[in-house]
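Usage

Read records sequentially. Each one opens with the input sequence:
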Amino acid sequence: MSNNVSDQAGSAGPTLLVAADHMPTAAAGEAAARAGLSAVAMGIVGSEILKIAASVRVLQAQGKSICNLTVGDFLPSQFPIPAALQAAIVRAYEKRETNYPPSDGMPAMREAVRLLYERTLGLSYPIESIVICGGARPAIYGTYRALVERGDRVIFPTPSWNNNHYIHLLEAVPVECQTRPEDGFMPTAKSLAPLVKGARLLCLNSPLNPTGTVLSEAELRRICELVLEENHRRAASGEKPLFVMYDQVYYALTFGAVQHYTPPQLMPEMTAYTVFVDAISKSLCATGLRVGWAVAPPYITARMRDILGHVGAWAPRAEQLAAAEILRDEKVLSDFHVVMKSEVQQRLDLLHQGFAAMQSQGLRVTSIAPQGAIYLSVQFALHGQRLPSGQVITSNEQIRAYLLESAGMAVVAFQAFGMKEESGWFRLSVGAVSPSEITQMLPRVEAALSALQPA
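and closes with the structure output:
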């Protein structure tokens, strides 16, 4: 018998004993364990927004009034899901709809998405083009995994949501498209043209998280023309095509005369190269219900179905059935969106108008008029200003911390969305605040900005 094993009478089996002088120290053990992790795991970066949330909670615990404009979510007390959706979920659970759904989604849900796109976007897809998954994130991951190989080039605009992290997970090559405030931080065909050669995937999101801006019809058409020209060239040389991942999870939320467009609407030939990412998360304030989908050529969604099936990224069966019921009910959707969009726009307008008033007084703040989603892009051009403490502002992080501590306004810098420049641009999200919170906060922000002095 080995010296390391004791086979005691009555024991369930052999017990492994390690000599005390062979036990590693805690530090050495951790170092050894970390050495065993993959390069992808070691290099992944956690959510920057969740880190900011921790500092918000500290101040709230101290009893300070904080207007939390950081989270891309909906506070149910401000933005509840539709009552009809909640009732439908309860009915589904009462019917014991609690077992596994099909790996590509419940047939009723897939059909509801097919009809929704036909009704609202004028797009006709077979049901085989639709795969249901646990929110939009698995649809994004499934798109990357189905189309992108290690070392492939992926184009994405900065700022944008999490493309840098998905590219890291796939060990692909990031190709950043720099954007400008005057373009609403949207990529243009002109800015993309030098980047498309050899790229495998172009990531677009409209309305855009984090900016709340929307791709115009004319610019999207020019981008589609660029993609088709590139793919015609590749077809002649036998190269793999360039695909577009079109994340339109906020497409129901546009304001005023702003309209949402899709690549296949403008140029039907783009149907072969477009993968839609979508969900009820934002359009129905249903982030926690985890019902999303991808729509693409069937040979792509078939692979996505199998990939996501192996990681169990399915939407719950009951929530799928309930969502299918609501998506098919035009009146319920219309009535809900009339109220919801009005509430979102009220909050965005309060912020935008408040900052415009401050700007007119000579304070160093500007914002882009809201176009869509639940976000406002705001620039606090405070670099070089002197804080009341005497410190000179040199970074967005200093701006964020100052606004939080002195004005009780919690915001997220565009660095959290891939932008590297210390430009003073921030995302403000209105899904978790009330109009009164915004109204009470704005004078505090004005006072905090007025307290700064030139260095």
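Summary fields computed downstream for this record:
- The first helix runs from residue 26 to 35.
- Residues 168 and 381 are 31 Å apart (CA to CA).
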